[in-house]
Design a protein that fits this description.
- By secondary structure, the protein is mainly beta.
- The chain has one domain (2-71).
- The protein is 8% helix and 36% strand.
- It is built from 1 helix and 7 strands; from the N terminus they run E-E-E-E-E-H-E-E.
- The strands form 3 sheets. A 3-stranded antiparallel sheet has the order 5-4-6, with no helix packed on it. Strands 1-2 form a two-stranded antiparallel sheet. Strands 3-7 form a two-stranded antiparallel ribbon.
- Strand 4 and strand 5 form a beta hairpin.
- The longest helix has 6 residues, at 55-60.
- The protein is elongated and about 45 Å long.
- It starts with a strand and ends with a strand.
C-alpha cells in the first residue's frame, strides 16, 4: 500500500488561494517493486521534486502520465 500526497500552492498574488489544495490517497499497486516514472504535463517529476505550473495551464488541467513506469 502506498500513500500519494499532492499539494498545490499558488505563487501569484492575484490568484493566491484559488488553486490551493491538498489531497492524500492510498493505492495498492502490483508488482510490489517498480521503477516509477511520472510526468506532469510533459515535465518529469523527480523524487522530492517540485513542478511549477502556470495559471493558464492549471485552468486547463494537469495530465499525470505514469506509462513510463516499469516493474522490477
Amino acid at each position: 500500500m502506498y500513500q500519494v500526497h499532492l499539494t498545490v500552492r499558488s505563487s501569484n498574488r492575484d490568484t493566491q488561494g484559488i488553486f490551493d489544495g491538498e489531497k492524500t490517497i492510498a493505492i495498492d499497486a502490483t508488482p510490489k517493486t517498480a521503477n516509477i516514472v511520472v510526468y506532469v504535463n510533459g515535465q518529469k517529476l523527480e523524487k522530492n521534486g517540485k513542478i511549477k505550473v502556470g495559471i493558464q495551464e492549471a485552468e486547463r488541467g494537469l495530465i499525470f502520465d505514469g506509462t513510463a513506469t516499469l516493474p522490477m
